[in-house]
Amino acid sequence: MGGLQKKKFERGSATNYITRNKARKKLQLSLPDFRRLCILKGIYPHEPKHKKKVNKGSTAPRTFYLVKDIRFLLHEPIVGKFRDYKVFVRKLKKAYGKTEWSAVERLRENKPTYKLDHIIKERYPSFIDALRDIDDALCMCFLFSTFARTGKCHVQTIQLCRRLTVEWMNYVIAARALRKVFISIKGIYYQAEVMGQPITWLVPYQFSHDHPTDVDYRVMATFTELYTTLLGFINFRLYHSLNLLYPPKAIVVTVLHLMFSFNAFLQEDMEKMEAREKEQKQQEAQKKLFEGLKFFLNREVPRESLAFVIRCFGGEVSWDKSVCIGSTYEVTDETITHQIVDRPNIDQQYINRYYIQPQWVYDCVNAKIILPVEDYFLGVTLPPHLSPFVEEKEGDYVPPEKMKIMALQRGEKPANEEEEEGEEEEEEGEDEEEEEDDDNDDDEEDDEEEEAEEKNLKKMEEQRSQGKSLQVKVTPGKVKVENPARLEQEEKAEEKRLAIMMMKKKEKYLYDKIMFGKKRKTREANKLAAKRKAYDDAEKAKKKKARK
Amino acid sequence: MEESSGSMRSSKQREEMKKVREKTARKRSKEEEEEQDQDQDQDQDQIFNFNNKPAEEEEEDEDLSDSEDSVYSGLEDSGSDSEDDEDEEEALDAAADDDEEEEKEEQAQRTEERRRKEGGVTDGKEEQKKDEYEHDSSDEEDIRNTVGNIPMEWYRDFPHIGYDLDGKKIYKPIRNKDELDDFLDKMENPDYWRTVHDKQTGSDIILSDDQVELVNRLQRGQFGDVNFNEYQPSVEFFSKDVMIHPVTNRPADKRSFIPSLIEKEKVSKLVHAIKMGWIKPRRVEDDSRGRYYDLWSTEDSSILAKHKMHLPAPKIPLPGHQESYNPPPEYLFTDEERALWEQQDPSDRKLPFVPVRFSSLRQVPAFPRFIHERFERCLDLYLCPRQRKMRVNVNPEDLIPKLPKPKDLQPFPTTQSLVYQGHSGLVRSISVSPSGQWLASGSDDGSVRFWEVRSSRCMKTVQVGGAVKSVAWNPNPSVCLLAVALDSVVLLLSPSLADRQVVSASERLLSGQDEVEPAEGAGPVTWGEAEGEELNQGIRLRIQHPKAVHQVVWHTKGDYLASVMPDHSSHLQVFIHQVSRRRSQNPFRRNKGLVQCVSFHPVRPYFFVATQRSVRIYNLVKQEMTKKLQANSKWISSMAVHPGGDHVICGSYDCRLSWFDLDLSTKPYKMLRHHKKAVRGVAYHRVYPLFASASDDGSVIICHGTVYNDLLQNPLIVPVKVLRGHVITHDLGVLDVTFHPTQPWIFSSGADATIRLFT
């Protein structure tokens, strides 16, 4: 006994965390600087396991950082640069105030700059780490590259973003790494596989942005600063992995044209590599999905996206000369196999080519086969565009279009539509039944039988109680067919139910939760199926009416 | 002269200068010779040609810097000369009024002649013209008449029109021309159209061809001089070409030879600033920023591995079918879903957007919240606290405990085989005779019925006149007696549903009491014989209690009978009656809570009393409490004792069934929450390892409960069957449950006025 009394909150988790304000004071940084530092260094708040303990007994909402993280920030050389910059701004202001233009000029020349290379290296010790975290960087750079040069951020940043994204796309084309494309209402999602890492990015549609006022562009700019550096290094490494020069020599002032002028440059190297890559390519048929096809893009389709996708899969693509430079052949070229058009009708049509809507290209990529073009002709109602990212598990709802595509992938030929519909319906019906069965664990049927018996009995009892003599009648008895398999199943189900009753409280709770989630899933799937059925029925009725 | 002039200037300039010099020189020589005539001529020309003057003057001014002073002075001389000439001319005009016209004609002729001459020799013409200009003065005032700029009407009534420079009067010409003369003049004079009246002198002037031409030119807005080139190239003096001659002749200042003090001061300031490090030398442009290299060329894992608390940010979930620009129709919102979506708080929404369908790609608009979403992602990345959440990734099947299969635990009742119907009220209590042949039931309709178990026939109905709370068959197989509790009475019935021997034995038991008179007749409980009609029905004894009796229980031997009267305030809650001696006693002196039910130990002299939350076990011999079991439930409803006597189950109104192992602990060994509603009755099978619980949810659950003799092994409890059949009426389901004494059968009585047998 004896000894000093232990004080509270002087050990354990309370000492492992630090609030944001305290951290800021420790680093002697202003809030914007602290924010910038956190963004660049990738420091984020942690949610302690026992908030009350960490918060010294208070339950007030606070953000906590790990003390270790903050100590780590303490030795960051970039903090010094921040201070330099602050001094620079102060001097500049002073010079402006005194209208000493020579001093302003001199100061501007000596504007402090900093590099983020060491931070990148520190945050991503290996290349794969960096690749894993590149999704956000790509999204951000693609967004910034679409900004107008109107002062939301530096023009240089926009140009740099544009350059890096174009380089990235070129890499994807050269490596034939694109796997999935999805046109969503937000933009176009692309998924590429680089060094075994799936990388997904979102490109907004080519419209001018309606810049919201409640967005802090400084935060976004800081992120972009980091991301451009990261993307640059990654591009470098990726280009070198393909034996390409980086930065590509073809980069001229007009970054916009890069993609196309660069292509010509690529071809030389490509020839060398082709021999090496041939074996790989043969393995993956998807990579040369469009090989041998010649596309022509009408002016109303999203040129960049389509050109990117088509080139990624080995197709040749061109467009009208007046749309953008880089077109390689004219509309009049006889060897064009597909012309991509997004208008209800077109005046002059060539016989030896398909006129299709752009969705065909994307659907082909996702299905990994060349889909029949009939559904994508001009003026035709397009089949739904499905997300390639959804992987249906057992019990999930699968849209019938996906089934169709899966059948095509297996090599089955699509039967006549009506037959197919019939089949589908049957399938659906079966599915539903099965689902129901699963849901109810075979209770209901038992119950029903019992209920029926009960009713019979009741009737008889009533009659008896009313004093009526029973109608004596000999009816041929029905042979109850007992399905042994079914009986066994029932037995098992009951066994399970009984076993569930014996679960411990905690486990039961967990089990119920899991089962609830499962049930909700099936419910949702059923709902979707029902909706689809109603829609199909309505469509059929319409068709019939139209026929009449 | 022309040849001698320098050639460094442009030829034009040179010409001008030449002209000026020529003019001055020639003037001097001619002045004397040509005198008046020429002067007049000059004068006239001067009048109309002064337009040329400014340009000439400018040129002269420009030339000034270069030309000699003599030129300049010469010009001025000429100006003064011209004035003199004019004066002479005026005087002459005044003198020869009469022959003015003649003279004028003469003048015109002369000028014409001279023009012709000049046309022949261009040099000569030029000279003449230049001469005229020499007489130009900057003063444009007309000095032939000195009256100044006044309305000439003022001189209307005078014979003169003004004064010349010498102060002599200038007389008006004799003018007596009337309209007719004017007309005639107009008709006859071919020069009438070119005759101009000079108001200043009052004379008529006939314009020469040149003058007319000049007027026409001016009217047309053209330059007066025919030879003037409006578009001559301008000469830039201050051009980038360095001239060898200075523009001015001014000597350089002294200060241009002396070092500047101010500059010195400034330089010293700069030097000081550089020394102090305030000014840095111009930075060498560092283009390493933005230059990329192979950052990961040396990949060593030793470099600052992330500490283990690092949590990588989760990736953005990938889009589903709903997000497509052309989703399948089932993913689009119906009107209701849309309304719901709009009502919901943005944080509650399942989807952050409404699925929309566009028939073609060109119709897809920009997503308005794109920048917002990116920004939110940024905020999440650096602002959102991260925590490692352990996701339970268990297969739900693994959670289910592994129990022996019910099939292996047979026999137990599985199906409903018989329904005993006849009661009209809910059946509160049932009891099976020890032989297993008879079933007694007590109902709220005030009757006790006896059923033949196998045939489900109602053998006997006894109207007892009150809602029967409890019935209990005497467990002694040698007697046939039934205890019935209703209101505040416990009846003992002899249903005579057995062999004659048994019936007589029971009669004997009941009548044997007659011999022993109750010693204390004045106790709270009174024993009375049934009479008349009741006797016929089989009721033998009435045990009158002070309060309503809820339960009766027999001791295994069949001689003792316990009855329960739940009451908060009194200690008279439990009575133990001895039938053979017609004696009653209250074992407890103190109220320990509301007694729910009681039970006898099957083998040993123990007595179980279940109060609201606990079960007390009393040793009847020692008359003390041996154990108190905590039921962990709110309100015990029923209790049953295992035939071995070491285990007790309690059902409670909060849906639980607790199994007590008396050797193990006073806490329940197992709590079973199988029922959804209050448990009303529990029962042990006397032979088989089975127990059952009945509940208000209309189900009876049969459990297998093996009890091992080995103390180290805990009882095995396995639910084996859920029996359903009773209909729930007035929120009451199954009220009582009893096992058959020998067979694995179970009887249950329900609120739907039926009794059911499950086998």
From TrEMBL, chain A:
Protein's GO biological process: maturation of 5.8S rRNA from tricistronic rRNA transcript (SSU-rRNA, 5.8S rRNA, LSU-rRNA); maturation of LSU-rRNA from tricistronic rRNA transcript (SSU-rRNA, 5.8S rRNA, LSU-rRNA)
Where does the record place Acidic residues bias?
417-453
> Where in the sequence does UniProt note compositional bias of the Basic and acidic residues kind?
454-465, 479-491
User: Which PROSITE patterns does UniProt cross-reference here?
Assistant: BRCT
Q: Where in the cell is it found?
A: Nucleus, Nucleolus; Nucleus, Nucleoplasm
Single GO MF descriptor = RNA binding
Region Disordered, annotated ranges: 409-491, 520-548
Q: Name one Pfam family in it.
A: Pescadillo_N
> What HAMAP family does UniProt report for this protein, alphabetically?
Pescadillo
**Family assignment from sequence similarity:** Belongs to the pescadillo family.
Q: What is this protein called?
A: Pescadillo homolog
Which species does the entry assign this protein to?
A: Lates calcarifer (Barramundi)
From TrEMBL, chain B:
InterPro entries according to UniProt? BOP1/Erb1, BOP1_N_dom, WD40/YVTN_repeat-like_dom_sf, WD40_repeat_CS, WD40_repeat_dom_sf, WD40_rpt
Q: Which GO terms describe its cellular component?
A: nucleoplasm; PeBoW complex; preribosome, large subunit precursor
Instruction: Show the SUPFAM superfamilies listed in the entry.
Output: WD40 repeat-like
Per UniProt, which keywords does this protein have?
Answer: Nucleus, Repeat, Ribosome biogenesis, rRNA processing, WD repeat
Subcellular location(s) per record: Nucleus, Nucleolus; Nucleus, Nucleoplasm
Which Pfam families does the record associate with it? BOP1NT, WD40
Q: Where is the composition biased (Polar residues)?
A: 1-10
What name goes with this protein?
Answer: Ribosome biogenesis protein BOP1
